[in-house]
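Same chain as my last thread, 696 residues:
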Amino acid sequence: MGYVIVKRDDAARRIVLSPRGPELLKEMGLVFDPGSVSTHPQDPGAADWDIAAAGPAAEAAETRWRPAHARFALRCECAIRVGEPPYLRAFSLEHLALQTTQCLRERRRILKSRLDPDEMLLSISQFPLLGTGTYIDHQGAPNGPLLRSQLLPDICLNSQPPFTLEIGGIVDRRGVVPYTGVPVFRDTNTVWPFVDEDLPADPYKGGILTQSCESNRDSACAMGSSTVATATPSAAASPADLNANGLPSNAPWDALLNSQPPPPSRPLLLEPPSNKNCVLLDSPLFGIGSGGVLRVTLCAADLDEARSLHDQLAPISAIMAALTAATPIVKGHLVNRDCYWDVQCSTVDDRSAQERGIVPLTTAKGTLLKSRYGSIDMYLGPDETRADPAFRRVYNDCHFTYDKQSFWKMKEDHGIDSLLALHVSRLFVRDIHYASENMLSTGETSSAMSGQEHFKRFLGCSRQNICLYPPNKCTSSGWEVEFMSLEAQLTDAENAAFITFIVLLSRVIISYRLNLYLPISLMDQNMARSQKVNAAGEQLFFFRRDVFGGRDGKSNGSGRISKRANLTPSRNTRPTSAGAERGTRGMNCSGVYAKAEYVELSVDEILNGSEAFGVTGILNIIFTYLNTMRLEYDVEQALRRQLLLVKRRASGKLCTLATWMRNFVRTHPEYQNDSVVSQSINYDMLRAMNDIEEGR
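reply #2:
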């Protein structure tokens, strides 16, 4: 969980960021140790902050506070006991129901108790005015040596080496500071075409989020790049039957594993960048460590269970991104999207011109179609000795580049199965951004776990919507799967509800062996749709019609229904919130819907079910699971209350935070219908959000 510290000026009706994060950590007795190494791949400074032997750290020790890349943000992990890994060893549904919300409230109370009277603590994904006007206390001049940004001064960046080196590594590897363009929301008085005068459009500094002329939708892969990289089918991502030697037997695999992956079959679309109709960002800090986060780490019993969770949770990540959308304002403007996922993926995009397909390959290992941050490239599938009929090789239908040398080393020297070896070898086509001195040393002072630390550096530099982590010797943890696509919510109750949903869904996946597999290309389309305005209420997402089918080795359908509007509905129909037609067929629906393996469904239909399309609904399955657990009455009711919030959010009875913020701005008396969010509007909105969080 992450938080943002802001400082208000009631006389001037202005709220700015407060860069006191490192100072607050020291007040809680947390000190920086530059010689230590990280204990978690997603937190480069995880082990660099240790609890002091004395001082006020006693109460803070239960929450394990961590610094973030930005000085105005802080991170903290779930409630633990000193000496235990950052998860509950004695986990139970009782812990989940009764302690999650209390844990979130307690950690917020601890930090609030150390704030100044004019400071507030908010769990928001991005400060609305970051990068425009006066937005941070003691702001100073931009173009500093650390960030090299024309919008952000160096005071925004935590000056400790793990963070400066990672930010600098992104810029150095790309060769220039990457530009990111976020489409502006066009209101009645918005100047059109809109031009962001803060930054010049420079063809050598990246690209703008463009619209694919073929798919007629915003491409998340195009942000921060002059390439619209559309995923294309390729043998590079397809598993195959193995021959007697344990190697793939079909010709495409032989060609793939003995040479570099071929380029995409369709040429990449090259478009010169333009600053029209976009808000421009020019620093990785806009996307990494500058806002509140909500990540859920799940512990698996073994590698097989971890692979299953990795695969089955991936298709649900887009639905949860839409359901938790919380970022409709970027750099003081209403933007034409509600989520921050694709913006984050773009701002940390460090691909070189060769890797983006702009210039011919000479030194790079191949063309990389995605940023370090993005959706997964492939499913892991089951181990080759434990076949799962629900997994089919056609699901891995997108091209990606991997490191051939590391693949064969794992495959031949260590007996790693092909899919897992491909998954790991993907990481080695990218560089790590930094390494501490003791990781590189080879003498007696070298770390005993340097190999594991190096591998965690590669993991930490490639953050996807679902991440798989190996066992950690430092914390004695086992295999872990991290769910990354959630956006931080305003209140602790909301955050606890979505944590509960993800944890219970993981238990249901294991207990009921759900089959949520989608082709990777459809999952990428879902992620792109989840970014749009009011995606939770208006967008349709590809999803399996029958999540219990397909495990007999046969397909439970005949493919997908790509456009519901082209189908003839039944006689009695009415429009749905997603703009499609809902029929009156029962759960045993017939016709083309019954034959479809995937259908386009709204978030409401995916989570709450649909009789028209024969969809059970994820929440209904979870409720059935709770009925079989024979829980104590108070525990079951607490879990159902948390799930009720998710149910109402999915049905549209409760709006997303992004919708609430957009409506607040557009109905504010000072709003000029020009997409601009002024200091006074931002002041009123953040004060209202703080009042809601405090229950006033």
